[in-house]
Amino acid sequence: MLFSSASRRFLPSILSFSDVLFPPATIFFSTKTINAIPESRPTHTNFDPPTVREALDSYCNDWRRSYEFFNWVESEYNFDHTTETYNRMLDILGKFFEFDLSWVLIHRMQQSPFASPDHATFRILFKRYASAHLVSEAISAYERLREFKLRDETSFCNLIDALCESRHVVEAQDLCFGKNRKLDCDSSTKIHNLILRGWLKMGWWSKCREFWEEMDKKGVRKDLHSYSIYMDIQCKSGKPWKAVKLYKEMKKKGMKLDVVAYNTVIHAIGISEGVDFASRVFHEMKEMGCKPNVVTCNTIIKLFCENGRFKDAHVMLDQMLKRDCPPNVITYHCFFRSLEKPKEILMLFDRMIKFGVHPKMDTYVMLMRKFGRWGFLRPVFLVWNKMEELGCSPNESAYNALIDALVEKGMIDMARKYDEEMVAKGLSPKLREELGTKMVNGGYHTNVNCNK
């Protein structure tokens, strides 16, 4: 990895793999190669799949570094990769469109006595192909599953789910019901639910209604999941009162709501009738024997925060810590989006980490952008340093948030150094007039003399 002088000034250097995993009593910042491992290092028995997966997560925004570590832990420590660690590596490779290398890894799995490709493996592959808008490649991958004895209904549902998740619903619907259909899906509730959720993702509300009515015409049985999706559609299309109407219809039919359905109803009632009415449904839910989960509590906290009722939101947060429902990173995001004082945000950010909730890249980016908009540079660097301290490799959104904050404060030279660092790591910076950056023959170019 390459780091600018600006990085070295504000951040500790990245340690070698062995130093990251086995920190010595006195840490010396080092950029030595991974082969420079003292003989006193622990043997491979100190590695387990969760540790390896956590390390891969740390390098998830640098696929070369991830792949280097993946091979290193196997060759240097004789670690036997499991299907889980292979799958995590495949997900990282797919994120950077390294599909040829992904297939090489899948064939390595076939040869391994400790790991073999499973449905999760190809679900990841379908998802990455679909998110890269490589629909034909995703379908071809499904066809190849005969080789792995996994071309079945589960894999087909995973393919349709991946396509719908990435807004390729037209293609998914054609595979299910068109002339190129792969399976007979006319009466499948699960397939119809996946397509319905795909139209929800697209935000095509008239198509959602048309498909919902078509399910009735075809005699497709609507289950609890169908109703939960359509309630969510009504909420997102700006008609939460219709979601509440569906909720009453479900109760009239004697359908027993699960936590997913209740979460949708609480959100709908909170929007249409207010947070106090949502709280009543929350208590009704508990009385009906349906245990709230973290999403339920997050929904209530979000409603409180959006209404400026931070005291009530903190009460709910404290209750989550006392119950068997620990808060997650989304819980804290609800606060971060609404709070308006940097000191309060940073205190809550510290509390979040103290209680073992690890920030996501979205957390760092959200906070840096927020502080940057407010013109507070010191909190931006506090968040940036914490990101590096916790072993999270910055992605292009994080770099761009930092650079925007520096440009806003007129610190052009430092901003340019981070800009160049991004390019050196293969990330895509924004084109900024202040830095003299522009596209030249389809490539990225920096005019270093732009301010001279």
TrEMBL record:
**InterPro entries associated with the record:** PPR_rpt, TPR-like_helical_dom_sf
Would the keyword Ribonucleoprotein be found if you checked this record's keyword annotation?
A: no
- Residue stretches of each PPR repeat: 188-222, 223-257, 258-292, 293-327, 360-394, 395-429
Record carries keyword Cell membrane: no
Query: Which residue spans adopt a coiled-coil conformation according to this UniProt entry?
Result: none
Which keywords has UniProt assigned to this entry?
Repeat
Looking up NCBIfam families in the UniProt record yields: PPR
| Similarity section | Belongs to the PPR family. P subfamily.
Q: Which PANTHER family match?
A: OS10G0422300 PROTEIN (PTHR47938:SF9), RESPIRATORY COMPLEX I CHAPERONE (CIA84), PUTATIVE (AFU_ORTHOLOGUE AFUA_2G06020)-RELATED (PTHR47938)
According to UniProt, the name of this protein is Pentatricopeptide repeat-containing protein
What's the source species' lineage? Eukaryota, Viridiplantae, Streptophyta, Embryophyta, Tracheophyta
